[in-house]
Write a structure and sequence with these properties.
Subcellular location: Cytoplasm
Order of helices and strands: EEEHEEHHHHHEHHH
Helix content: 40-55%
CATH class of one domain: Mainly Beta
Number of helices: 9
Number of strands: 6
Radius of gyration: 18 Å
CATH superfamily of one domain: Nucleic acid-binding proteins
Pfam family, one: HHH_5
Family: Belongs to the RuvA family.
Strand content: 15-25%
Protein name: Holliday junction branch migration complex subunit RuvA
Largest sheet: 5 strands, mixed, barrel
InterPro entries: DNA_helicase_Holl-junc_RuvA_I, Hlx-hairpin-Hlx_DNA-bd_motif, NA-bd_OB-fold, RuvA, RuvA_2-like, RuvA_C, RuvA_C_sf
Distance between the termini: 54 Å
Structural class: alpha+beta
Amino acid sequence: MIGRIAGRIDYRASDHVLIDVRGVGYLVYCSDRTLSSLPAVGGMAALYTDLLVREDILQLFGFPTLVEKEWHRLLMSVQGIGAKASLAILGALGPDGVSRAIAIGDWNAVTAAKGVGAKTAQRVVNELKDKAPTVMAMGSAPPPAQDAGEVIEAESVAAPVAAPVMPAGNGAQAEALSALTNLGYAPGEAAGAVAQAAGETSDAETPALIRAALRLLAPKG
């Protein structure tokens, strides 16, 4: 299975790009957010990919980071969420927004994705709340190098699987989550507190996030 490709963008459409990798063109479907971040036709791009295999079709889906790819795979595990809905959620919220919405149980935020109703959004939050900390703790993965042309099989891409999921690009949140779980808090409980604290103070560093999360976790009354 193809896990990553890098090459020249030969064509752009409303939901996919054609990437030329040393003479072979790959159609890669992406979220609106990812598409908007890619260069124009003729520019170089590199994406982590997930291959969807059906009886009648093979489709590649592309993501700028491994964290976003893992979110796609988790979202696809929820009943009623297919590839199109997963990309809509990631396009509307981004991996950070998905992490926060699930961690704090904000299913209403998930309905911002086109075609995702309240019942489906609630199912997403309920089914993934215990899995979210794993993706959130992955932290930020460096963007793939934009090589002249490269295809890498998925088996050669070492994606973390055992670590708890913090929003990509925010190491402070990942460190705060790790500290709280080391203190004995349940991953889901800790993730919710860190996500809420980060939402209130988005630029807080690790110590401040830990203190704020501990205040939220403290017994009330």
